[in-house]
Design brief:
Layout lengths: L1 H19 L1 H4 L1 E10 H12 L2 E3 L10 E10 H9 L3 E6 L2 E6 L2 E12 L3 E10 L10 E4 L4 E4 L5 E7 L5 E6 L3 E2 L1 E5 L15 E2 L6 H4 L1 H6 L2 H10 L2 E12 L2 E2 L8 E8 L2 E4 L1 E8 L2 E4 L3 E7 L2 E4 L3 E7 L2 E4 L3 E7 L2 E4 L3 E7 L2 E4 L3 E7 L2 E4 L6 E9 L6 E14 L2 E4 L2 E7 L2 E4 L2 E8 L2 E3 L2 E7 L2 E12 L2 E9 L3 E9 L4 E8 L4 E9 L6 E9 L2 E2 L4 E13 L8 E12 L4 E13 L12 H4 L3 E2 L5 E13 L1
Length: 618
Amino acid sequence: MRTLRITVIFLLFFSSLIKAQSNLSRNISLNIEQQKLSSVLAMIEEKGGFRFSYNSNILPVDSLISIHENNLNIAETLDKILNHRFEYRQSGNFVIIRYAPLELVLLVNESVGNPELYTITGQVVDKQTNKPIQDASIYERNLLISEISDGNGYFSMRLKNITQPISLTVSKENYKSTVTHFLAEVNITNRKENPGERFIYGNLGDVENTWLGNALVTAQQKIQSINIGGFISKAPFQFSLIPGLNSHGSLSGQVVNKFSLNVIGAYSAGVDGGEIGFVFNINKSNVQYFQFAGAFNLVGGDVRGAQIAGLFNYVIGDVRAAQIALAYNRVGKNFEGFQLGGIYNRVNEDVKGLQLSLGLNTIGGTLKGFQTGALNLVSKDTKGIQIGVGGNVVSGRTSGIQIGGIANIDKESSGINLAMLTNFTGQTASGLQIGAINYAKDLKGVQIGILNVSNENDGYSIGLINIALKGYHKFSFSTNESTNFNVAYKGGSKRLYNMLMFGTNKKSAEKIYTGGLGFGKEMKLFKSVSLNPEISSQYVYQGSWDYLNLLNKFELSINIRINKWLAIQGAPSVNVYYTRQNTKIGEFGLLQEKHKNFSFNNSGYTGWLGWNVGLVIL
């Protein structure tokens, strides 16, 4: 009866192994001559219906391969083209290729016990040299019990509460892993692979390479990570005092827990439920649902859910979560969700969501959301709202809204830029700039400010002074019915130019000074003739600043070009004048007494038809 039970166990066990290794045992045929290894692997992927995962820095993907084999299984095919220097593990629809040119052997010295307590002692040695191997990982993947070989390659392992056959896996960096099976006398009717067990491939040691990870993760946990980093199992619960004292021992870095309670801190493979660390949490791979730490959370993979820390959160992968820290949040890849940092937030790639900080927000990629802080820095494009108390700096294109207390700086803009002091666009601005000083190399939108500067202007500049270095800038000298001498600077674009105007009448008893702003548009009628409708408002000084005297004028000017730098102008005008000054002062006159073609119900207003002639320097 015992022999029958053992036979059934073996059949069930090896049938599950065959199923797990179905991709590697599948037969294929290849007839290839001098093709790159990367192309050959792609052919095997297509024939096998799976994907390879490997480190391209170790695998010679550019080497040339020749192979002519019929009906050979995939594992044997890989051995031929890779010269038996790698080993292969299957995880879902992936086959992981791991560099392992050497082989080891497990020498069992003692294997005794019962289901309540089973003891295994032995030695790990190099298969070729027979020399002992130090720091090899020996682990039972179902019980999550592990040991590390000593300086002479020896180990001793005690296993409790055994309910299925024992499978000891021995792993060491650059060595092919080996599995040894032991059958304790246990009552087993069916044996299934652990559904939570899997192999993954990637930079699982990234978190250990940070200064905090290097300082807090124990030497034994680092050794386990190096030797068996790809083996990840699941457990319902972990309790930890510090990383080295926990319910999973040195294998904690290979276990994803549903819930983890850490008195000071812990190191694990990840979280698939919730984790609370009263000081810190360190996770080698992914975290999802909820994570809280009194000081910090350090995650080597991705985060989904909510992450809260008293000081900071540092995630090497992606984040799709609500992330809150009193000091700062740092994300190595993309962020999507809500991020609140007391001092600063840093995302190395793209952001889709809300980013709030009292200090600095930095994004290495694109912003598609809302960002507010003292200073916001984006390395690529923004398609959202930025509010910077100090300012916003975007190295790419902005197509949303920028609000900067001091300045907004970007490469290209097609959105709205609002700044108390200045907006600076290094290339094309096709949106709206509002600030005291606005600059755009190529203006195709609208500028509103005191000083608007552009290199080329094909848009609209509205302000006190508009300068287009390669755009529209002209000076006019003229006389009209009110002032004998007038000068105006016209700058901007033909679509809309700004006028800065000054005038004077020196005649005794009619003396006045004028100054103001206006806007105009050039409409070409013929090759050398243009129509320039202009509207302006000027303050009229008549001997005292105590009165508000405003002359509002609409002119329909005809410009006739004489040569490439000179034109003559003439225009009829409609004038509306408002004043409360009814007393002459010294030599100054009253403009309302000089002209009065029509009147208004309000005695402060008067109006007349006027004229303007002069020269324009192009």
